[in-house]
Amino acid sequence: MNTTYKLKSKQDSIPESTLNLKLKQIKHEIAIISGKGGVGKSTIAINLAASFALKEKKNKIGVLDADIHGPCVPKMLGLKGQKLIGGPAGMIFPVKGPLGMKVVSIDFILSNDDTPVIWRGPLKMRAIQQFLSDIIWGNLDFLFIDLPPGTGDEPLSIMQLIPDIDGVIIVTMPSEVSQDVVKKAISFARHLKVPIIGIIENMSGFVCPKCGTEFEIFKAGGGKKIANDLSIPYLGKIPIDPQICVESDKGMPFIISTPNSLTAKAFNSIVMKIQKFINKTSMEEKK
Asked: Of the CATH numbers 3.40.50.300, 3.90.79.10, 3.30.70.360, 3.40.50.880, which one belongs to the domain with range 16-285?
């Protein structure tokens, strides 16, 4: 009989060899990071996952919500209240999300929405390791990892556990504060020798919900400037669109629910650049 999954103790952890075998079943791993919170990183992460799931409707997608203290992926994918279920030999079944995406989050093992996660670094790293090694991910084309803001334990754990990660996507917004801290995220990735796929400037401009016209209401272009100054690919910008918040609260990626919106079209342009990066690196690895 299946039971709700609980994290294992240190003594019961699965060996590293098992983790390596699991990672070999995943073709591409992409992490989404930011220097600070509130820039819409999780929104970008789930819509990236949905976009690649929609691509020719053949990609097998996994989403790992690695934000231990503030998981929000389940809410954005309409999966609140779901639980991870134990399977054979101590393995775990992921939760099935929209478009067949396999989703894992700490939120799926908490007793209720008000339960805080009061853990130090080693325990968080152990949890992330188990989410990678114990989950029955199966064969995946892409695993998208939504990391918490900053450069703390969780991002470091992911980079150490997945040494061959395809790269990171850095999300920022037009404010000067965001631009200052995003440089730390860039330095973090470079220090760990992790490829930087590019920068996305989120909440850049405003799309009128009535007429669909885009207006620049804040300072714009900061993400592109940083990309140019630090020789990093600039993937594009996503405007502020009130409908994004509405769809997130409903638990539906906007790329699915509003595919013809200006925001979705801007996002699709970014997705094409990411796919181009993946194709290029895949070709180089074959040489």
From this structure: 3.40.50.300
